[in-house]
What we know:
It is an enzyme of class 1 (oxidoreductase). Its EC number is 1.1.1.23. There is one protein chain. The protein is an alpha/beta fold and about 425 residues long. The protein contains 16 helices and 14 strands. Helix 4 packs parallel to helix 5. The radius of gyration is 25 Å and the shape is globular.
Amino acid sequence: MIKLxxxxxxxxxxxxxxxxxVLEIIHKIRKEGDHALKEYNIxxxxxxxxxxxxxxxxxxxxxxxxxxxxxxxxRFAAKNIEEFAKRQKEMFKHMEEQEVMxxxxxxxxxxxxxxxxxxxxxxxxxxxxxxxxxxxxxxxAGVKRIVTxxxxxxxxxxxxxxTLAAMHIAGANEIYAxxxxxxxxxxxxxxxxxxxxxxxxxxxxxxxTEAKRQVSGVVGIDFLAGxxxxxxxxxxxxxxxxxxxxxxxxxxxxxxxxxxxxCTDEKVGKDTIKEVENFLKDLPTAAIAKEAWENNGEVILIxxxxxxxxxxxxxxxxxxxxxxxxxxKVVPKLINYGSLFIGEGAAEVFGDYVAGTNHILPTMRxxxxxxxxxxxxxIKVVTNQRVTKEGLKIIGPVASRLGALEGLYAxxxxxxxxxx
Length: 420
């Protein structure tokens, strides 16, 4: 294994400052409610709203302001995301009571959470695609109350019109102009104007992520996500220009984003580095993408595809692209990734926007134990049991003995009174 392009080693950075600041913000939101929310809205976004909920008039104005082609594109993407979510939901079925042994009947129900919130980041550019990705699966799952929020455009009172249009198209019930860790606190604990929700999903900066960590347990969350990342596995048949473009598509997200190429062909690896440098000359987002590429990008020459597969499974990337001649031999061996893109035509950006799979995905190796947001994120499977007198005779004595074994004598009692 040879590194044709290395990442710069990172210094260990403490997160105590972020943790403490977020703790302070959430505490103040819990204590002061809307008053604190207004204070932080002004402090961080210059947004002086008295009512945080977006009105129907604001939504209609946004729809008029956004280009017709953009509305069409958002509806096209929304339709694909919804269709895939509907097909995913088909795997969730109620299991009616089944007699697993004489007199013991077990079953389960798959039911949606009652309420959820989709956090949509703001920042340098609008991210309407994230609104579609968090709201539509929840809607398909059957969530009754779907809330969403995003910070107002800096020094204004409103969310970016494209994001607002996407929230409306996706089917949100309530939309709020607020962002940052204060928004997460308001959604988790509620304020005078905002009822708390049962679950919060969606990406965000380090403050949003830390806030989700701190409120986890009070509400459900999807996962804690970090900077975006892509790993590409390639052989001699791969196109360096396509690989370079896909690496830069991740790199432009954030200076901390990572683009990694694992290739079995030295020429493909070196040509990819050249193509990245060529693209950066004219890329409008070159300032961010170049920093991410120079600091975090890697091109690793691998002896065999088997070695690439092993390393990829260890990295457990958010996005994983396969650009090799014999895809069918590689794909079954890949076990850790957020979303998989098979073949040259499957651009990761299609997953970001329009293919129908979700782009809210696990990062920082968490794909080892979780997948991304999907319709199942919003569905809980709950069990039920019914025991007849015949069943009681079979399982009652066993439960009584196990209760005594564990020193839980009220457990034993609960079994014994039924047996008598």
